TrEMBL record:
Superkingdom assignment: Bacteria
Active site residues of this protein: Y137, K166
Organism: Paraprevotella xylaniphila YIT 11841
Top EC category: lyase
UniProt-listed GO biological process terms: diaminopimelate biosynthetic process; lysine biosynthetic process via diaminopimelate
Classification of source organism: Bacteria, Pseudomonadati, Bacteroidota, Bacteroidia, Bacteroidales
SMART domains: DHDPS (SM01130)
Subcellular location per the Swiss-Prot or TrEMBL entry: Cytoplasm
Gene Ontology molecular function: 4-hydroxy-tetrahydrodipicolinate synthase activity
Catalytic activity, reaction form: L-aspartate 4-semialdehyde + pyruvate = (2S,4S)-4-hydroxy-2,3,4,5-tetrahydrodipicolinate + H2O + H(+)
Name of protein: 4-hydroxy-tetrahydrodipicolinate synthase
E.C. designation(s): 4.3.3.7
Family: Belongs to the DapA family.
Length: 297
């Protein structure tokens, strides 16, 4: 039976770019070491936060190879593999190189808005084709379709290699329904930094985090405290970061966290179109809060 390795603090890893628009592999190497040194539990690569739709096929191959070699098994790697063409995803799973990858994160099909039965059949095909464990990803704000608790639970019961779901529906009742009725070998992972604390108190096992790119030590401390039942101290950290949670997404993701990492001197503040950097006012607020928090790097 497949086990879920993706617990605690996972990072939705960004892709740094140079001022000329090319991938900044040196900055990415520094960022990965910073993450691991500061206690992250796993890395999620080639996701939305990595601006994967704007990476070329060659860049994706280079990045995957580089990240597998750099991480060298120190933490599990969860790699994005999804789309709205089921046959193309299945082909990629069957023909791709998955060495060094511990699981795939597969988003609900976007834009073409399948029914719940369509979602079930899509992930059934992926589960049957995948050589590694599967983590579902429900993010209706991006895909235009919400996968119901009923469909999630049906998939969890029917396929042992579907080990978890990254839930970013924003519907706490739906998430709680999944946690309450799930099989023992299936977990819920928060897909939203701002609700990670309450969701873990309900029974989620961790988060795939955006803010953790910049603040892995602080955010992992909150996640571990919550998982260990130290809600009082975890809540203090949760509230301390409440304003940053909002600022990270007000101009879109990953514009906010890239602005934060730039303010920390770690990367260039570069994104690929159609994404653009945060507004100056947002950047100033982020820099101001970082100074107030007095976090040392």
């Amino acid at each position: 039976m497949a086990q879920n390795k993706f617990k605690g603090l996972g990072i939705a890893l960004i892709t740094p770019f140079k001022s000329d628009g090319e991938v900044d592999y040196e900055a990415l190497t520094r960022l990965v070491e910073y993450q691991i040194r500061n206690g992250v539990d796993f890395l999620c690569i080639m996701g939305t936060t990595a601006e994967t739709p704007c990476l070329s096929a060659d860049e994706k191959k280079i990045l995957k190879k580089m990240l597998v070699e750099r991480v060298a098994g120190r933490v599990p790697l969860l790699m994005g593999c999804g789309g709205n063409n089921t046959a193309a995803v299945v082909k990629d799973l069957k023909e791709g190189d998955w060495s060094g990858i511990d699981g795939i994160l597969s988003v609900c099909p976007y834009y073409n808005k399948p029914s719940q039965e369509g979602l079930y059949q899509h992930f059934k095909a992926i589960a049957e084709a995948s050589p590694v464990p599967v983590v579902l990803y429900n993010v209706p704000g991006r895909t235009g379709v919400n996968m119901s608790a009923e469909t999630t639970l049906r998939l969890a019961r029917d396929f042992e290699n579907i080990v978890a779901i990254k839930e970013a529906s924003g519907d706490i009742t739906q998430m709680d329904d999944i946690i309450k009725n799930k099989p023992d070998n299936f977990d819920v992972i928060s897909g939203d930094d701002g609700i990670t604390f309450p969701l873990i108190t309900l029974g989620a096992v961790g988060v795939i985090s955006v803010i953790g790119n910049a603040l892995p030590a602080e955010f992992s401390r909150m996640v571990r405290m919550t998982l260990n039942g130290d809600y009082e101290h975890a809540r203090i950290i949760h509230h301390k970061f409440a304003e940053l949670f909002k600022l990270l997404f007000v101009d879109g993701n990953p514009a906010g966290v890239k602005a934060m990492l730039h303010a920390m001197g770690m990367i260039e503040n570069q994104l690929r179109l159609p994404l653009v950097p945060t507004r100056l006012t947002t950047m100033e607020k982020i820099s101001s809060i970082l100074k107030e928090l007095d976090i040392r790097y």
